[in-house]
Amino acid sequence: MKSPLFYSKILLFGEYGIIKDSKGLSIPYNFYNGALKIDQNPSLEARKSNENLKHFVNYLSKIDPDLVVFNMETLNKDIKKGMYFDSSIPQGYGVGSSGALVAAIYYKYAKDSITVLENLTREKLLKLKAIFSEMESFFHGKSSGLDPLNSYLSLPILINSKDNIEATGIPSQSTSGKSAVFLLDSGIVGETAPMVRIFMENMKKEGFRSMLKEQFIKHTDACVEDFLKGDIKSLFSNTKQLSKVVLSHFKPMIPKQFHELWKRGIETNEYYLKLCGSGGGGYILGFTPNIEVAQKALKDYKLEVVYHF
Q: What is the Cα 178 distance to its own chain's centre?
């Protein structure tokens, strides 16, 4: 069974904000990937994945056929043969494990699918995002559809607003550059649904809503623009502000043992931390003007550099 690889993603900016129309920027992260497979002698892991796929397929059969239709006959046949999702993408880490699976299923089984080779108009991108949102809601209760979109296209995606998204180019990496974006491993598995519930509860409070608009979204939008323009000085200034806002207003999404570390980065300017995905565990995203300094300051933690500039 030949199935292409689908990669993990990193939402550099826009977590939570994109639910309320902030800008966002999502990039593929090729370090992790997954593919659909069938083995003659499946491992326990593969059998577990196959069981989960059965529930997912049952859910897919109920999606509005005006949105998307799957070749259920072939899909059910492959599930019976033991098909599973073979993935190196860590689950609950905010790098799109369910997104890659959704992209793989759509690619192989959707009828009249929109392909990567087409001229991807805004309408087509929005249609794909709507399909993926519906598919991925099985895993999270509510999904923007961006993770699978990123995985499916394997291109950076710029979110201007809910109804305005485009594939974009990002400044090329400078391997000699000292500044970097990195992932810090919290060592805890995060769950998206409870975090989103906390956010939605907070959204009922007027103070939280105005903070989101006047601070969180303002700095998120500025970070996206700075990053795309390559304005490093302004990017770090806005990332610092964003890191402060998150520490003040999104505390439940930051594992307790990282509160001090978060604060220390803001105070020393050695690094700035922000949420990677919904938070609650998994990876924490870091930005640093000097990766060597950050590595020393965070020597007790596992860091992965994802982008040099």
A: 25
pLDDT, tens only, 74-90: 999 999 999 999 999 99
Burial class (CB in 10 A: 0-12, 13-18, 19+), 178: middle
Per residue in 196-237, pLDDT (tens digit) is 889 999 999 999 999 999 999 999 999 999 999 999 999 999
- Overall residue count recorded for the chain in this entry: 309
- Mean pLDDT in residue range 240-263: 96
Instruction: Give the chain's mean pLDDT.
Output: 93
End-to-end CA gap in the chain: 39
Q: How, if at all, do strands 283-288 and 180-185 pair?
A: antiparallel
The most distant pair of C-alpha atoms in the chain lies apart, rounded to whole Å, by 58
Q: Are 223 and 13 in contact (CB under 8 A)?
A: yes
Q: What is the DSSP letter of 20?
A: G
Q: Are 295 and 286 spatial neighbours (Cβ–Cβ below 8 Å)? A: no
Q: Which domains does the chain have, with CATH numbers?
A: 6-167 (3.30.230), 180-308 (3.30.70.890)
